[in-house]
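Q: Given only this backbone (485 positions), what sequence would you predict?
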């Protein structure tokens, strides 16, 4: 490792390497807030394009080589990596390390797999560097105008970054949407779960649209009006707002609603899948999120869909007699399901925090998600209040305020799910959310039978409700119960 005294250092306060849309916009955000920003990209064309188009927005210091980029930065260096997750991120880190000095800070602001972040943080810490895995949400607009920022890693490193990150973050009620989340991979884990909740939120909205359109015959533009009305109430959120705009959009080529000419195959980049995988590993039920991921997978199987449709045809359905009532019912079902999706996400975060000693404050997440990010919504203020009232709250469904909302929506929720199923309208996320709610409230689940089955074929034992210890039945013998302790 080269010592800083052996070579001159520059004056840039922060550097950004990786100048695709997100990286370029984050660099522009930093420059517009008065920071001197070093910029670099593997291909020089992107660096040149940024300077040519936006160089007047602030003070940029462009570099062609990684060595020049590093030398243009004041020490201790603060370098933000904005490249694809996985091997490309490792490649950039490997290129940077020989050029850095002790205590330099590397910020990975991409959608990294959180276990990669744990590995990188430990490896770089052992070499004397500081690594801050940082979730950034808000898309290209958020990166430019103010994202929600979720930094993890060394608290001391964050203290040095805070004046910069908190200044470029979205601001709500005078508070920056940026907080230190916790050590090592806490920031990227939280960002991953944020995206998992986003998957569920989007799928629930899509199901609400599908139920209304199928069972009322309303046009996308008419449904857009319903979404605009919903956006003035408990569903007030960025995703509801943009959905109304999308449904209103007319395709210039065909004069049809744009939603009707877009191929119905939803893509994904991995964070939803990672959320579900992490939930499975940690034993946390996240059915709403999982079904949202699987719904995208089903949508992307055109051959299987075509074959099944050819075999069975469309499911018959009946148009709702009272369209206004159905729309009102769907609004309530969507809200109740949304509460479940957030409850599952927060449960996963709190479980991971306990497992990995991250000491994450869930109320902080509700605070920083109120602005800049994709799942920003008015009811995050109430989530923040719920965790302030009870920092040990493990499930939003037992908060008095949210419990009252779910109670008020329950009848409509059941009605919509039942109506959709009866008419062949797939509502996997609605159904999974309701099943989760029913499973939690049930006094006794059929898991007892599952345990008996496991004991029968695998001697996995079971516990009794009326005695301590573990037991096993000699199923292939005399059928007697014996202690397994």
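A: Predicted residues:
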């Amino acid at each position: 490792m080269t010592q800083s005294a052996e070579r001159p250092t520059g004056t840039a306060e922060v550097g950004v390497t990786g100048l695709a849309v997100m990286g370029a916009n984050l660099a522009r955000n930093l420059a517009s807030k008065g920071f001197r920003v070093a910029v670099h990209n593997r291909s020089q064309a992107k660096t040149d394009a940024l300077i040519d188009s936006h160089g007047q927005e602030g003070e940029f210091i462009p570099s062609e080589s990684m060595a020049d980029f590093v030398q243009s930065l004041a020490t201790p260096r603060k370098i933000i990596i904005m490249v694809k997750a996985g091997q490309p991120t490792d490649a950039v880190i490997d290129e940077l390390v020989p050029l850095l000095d002790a205590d330099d800070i590397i910020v990975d602001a991409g959608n990294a797999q959180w276990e990669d972040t744990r590995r990188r943080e430990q490896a770089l810490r052992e070499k004397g560097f500081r690594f801050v895995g940082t979730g950034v949400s808000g898309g290209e607009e958020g990166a430019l105008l103010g994202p929600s920022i979720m930094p993890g890693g060394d608290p001391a490193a964050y203290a040095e970054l805070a004046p910069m990150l908190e200044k470029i973050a979205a601001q709500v009620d005078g508070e920056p949407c940026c907080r230190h989340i916790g050590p090592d991979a806490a920031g990227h884990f939280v960002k991953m779960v944020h995206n998992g909740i986003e998957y569920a939120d989007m799928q629930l909205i899509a199901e609400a649209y599908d139920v209304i359109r199928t069972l009322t015959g309303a046009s996308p533009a008419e449904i857009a009006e319903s979404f605009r009305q919903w956006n003035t109430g408990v569903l007030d959120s960025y995703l509801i707002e943009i959905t109304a705009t999308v449904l209103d959009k007319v395709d210039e080529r065909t004069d049809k609603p744009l939603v009707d000419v877009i191929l119905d195959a939803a893509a994904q980049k991995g964070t939803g899948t990672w959320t579900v995988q992490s939930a499975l590993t940690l034993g946390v039920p996240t059915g709403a999120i999982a079904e949202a991921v699987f719904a995208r997978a089903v949508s992307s199987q055109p051959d299987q869909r075509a074959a099944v449709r050819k075999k069975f045809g469309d499911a018959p359905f009946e148009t709702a007699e009272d369209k206004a009532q159905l729309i009102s019912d769907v609004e309530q079902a969507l809200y109740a399901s949304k509460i479940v999706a957030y409850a599952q996400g927060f449960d996963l975060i709190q479980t991971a925090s306990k497992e990995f000693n991250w000491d994450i404050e869930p109320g902080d997440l509700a605070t920083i998600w109120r602005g800049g990010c994709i799942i920003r919504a008015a009811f995050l203020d109430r989530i923040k209040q719920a965790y302030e009232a009870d920092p040990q709250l493990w499930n939003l469904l037992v908060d008095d305020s949210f419990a009252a909302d779910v109670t008020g929506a329950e009848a409509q929720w059941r009605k919509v799910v039942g109506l959709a199923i009866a008419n062949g309208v797939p509502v996997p996320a609605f159904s999974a959310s309701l099943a989760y709610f029913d499973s939690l409230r049930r006094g006794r689940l059929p898991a007892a039978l599952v345990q008996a089955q496991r004991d029968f074929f695998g001697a996995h034992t079971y516990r009794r409700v009326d005695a301590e210890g573990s037991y096993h039945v000699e199923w292939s013998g005399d059928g007697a119960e014996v202690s397994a302790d």
